[in-house]
Amino acid sequence: MSNFVSGRHFLQTPGPTNLPERVLRAMNRHAINHRGPEFGALGLEIVRKMRMVFQTSSATIGIFPASGTGAWESALTNTLAPGDRILISRTGQFSHLWEQMATRFGLDVVALETDWRRGADAAAIQLALEQDTEHKIKAVCAVQCETSTACMTDIAAVRDAMNAAKHPALLMVDAISSLGCADYKHDDWGVDVTIAGSQKGLMVPPGLSFTAISDKALAVARAGGGRRSYWDWEPLVASNKTGFFPYTPAMNLLYALNEALDMLAEEGLATTFARHARYAQATRLAVAAWGLELQCQDPNAYAPGVTAIRVPEGHSADKLRAVILEKFNMALGNGLGRMEDKVFRIGHMGDLGVLSFTGTLTGVEMGLRAAGIPHNEGGVQAAMNYLATSNG
Ligand code: PLP
Asked: For the segment 242-297, what is each residue's pLDDT rounded down to a tens digit?
């Protein structure tokens, strides 16, 4: 049997995502002097464009040569000292990992449970904050898109809950798998720290992470926070004015980012979000026709960039993914944490045309048959009918 596989690999994980040809070409350049004028101009341009996607006019922008986990660490260590209390909603595996990191830093974590099938409950957050009459809670942490469950948390509602409770805690949001896929308003929602990563809706390879930092969060960091060095925010303030980095930047990823941000601007954020919403809706129509169950049980919380699907009891989601990889050369996301082997996830975020997307669903439907997962036929047809008659 030949080892050669004809045709393009389908990378339909919820990050890393498919890279546009333009982004690949933009990266394919020599490095330049990162202390020279050409680099400074690039840095400034990127800060300006990142503010556009975060929808902020003046937040301090951090760009770290690190995965999203690094930006989590920067958020916690700049604003919080060991013993400080935070409030976090347990919405899935990523909130779990963020919480675990907070615990390792000696923070006092107050956690609100969910069943991992919906977003954070803003009313529960409000109640917890109202009960915190001494304002011991220093930060509320929320994950906008829980990539593991494909459920969204309504960040505007979390902010409203904080305002209703008249609580001064910082609001920190992980928008790693939602920035560039779903509407995100750092300024309007009064977010203090937004965290993002390069490898999802931003259509850039893994390796960069981002923070948007409000003046309030910056003031908290300046007044204290925890021990940090590499992650310290202070040098970012100067960086944002000069375009230079306090260390050697991940230059080729920045070339990629600059191009990807131009592409987002050309498409227009509203169109980008509508495209993701349309693919998500088409995916759910396919899932309903297959007779399978979504992990997300709240229709108001469906994620635009990823759909998590449960396999029937007694069947293996991992086996399904292995069959799809082997037979159809497509990678899907696995079930994480307590959803291991029970859930598979279709990433439909980033650079994805309608035909590649329907090809993705076709691969899933063929895989369901090949792996012997009980289902009804017609999921792809249901998605196609919707896509053929809707605009986007
Ligand atoms: N938060 C969310 C919502 C994620 O989806 C991920 C990664 O998939 C992370 C955090 C961790 O990011 P990274 O793997 O880039 O460190």
From this structure: 999 999 999 999 999 999 999 999 999 999 999 999 999 999 999 999 999 999 99
**C-alpha 148 to ligand 1 mean position (Å):** 9
Q: Which domains does the chain have, with CATH numbers?
A: 10-17+268-389 (3.90.1150.10), 21-266 (3.40.640.10)
Ligand 1 centroid – CA 377 distance (Å)? 33
Q: Choose one of 76, 90, 94, 208 to mutate for the ligand 1 pocket test, by most ligand atoms within 8 angstroms of C-beta.
A: 94
- What pLDDT, on the 0 to 100 scale, is given for residue 1? 62
Cis preceding-peptide flag for 246 (omega within 30 of 0): no
Q: Examine the pLDDT at 361 and tell me if it is beyond 80.
A: yes
- CB-based contact 26:205 (threshold 8 Å): no
DSSP string, 32-101: --TTSHHHHHHHHHHHHHHHHHHT-SS-EEEEESS-HHHHHHHHHHHH--TT-EEEEEE-SHHHHHHHHH
Distance CA 362, CA 344 (A): 15
- Buried residues in 318-331 as b, exposed as e (16+ CB within 10 A): eebbebbbeebebe
Q: Which atom of ligand 1 is nearest to the CA of 209?
A: 15
Q: How confident is the model at residue 391 (pLDDT cuts 50, 70, 90)?
A: confident
Q: Which protein residue has the closest C-alpha to ligand 1 atom 13?
A: 68
Q: Which residues line ligand 1 (CB under 6 A)?
A: 15, 67-69, 94, 143, 147, 174, 176-177, 197
pLDDT tens profile 84-103? 999 999 999 999 999 999 99
Taking the centre of ligand 1 as the mean of its atom positions, its distance from the CA of residue 173, in whole angstroms, is 12
> Best substitution site from 143, 172, 176, 332 to test ligand 1's pocket, by max atoms within 8 Å of Cβ?
176
Q: Which atom of ligand 1 is nearest to the CA of 206?
A: 15
d(CA 243, CA 32): 14
**Res 3: pLDDT:** 82
What value does the mean pLDDT of the chain take? 97
pTM (whole model) above 0.90: yes
**What does the pLDDT read at residue 221?**
98
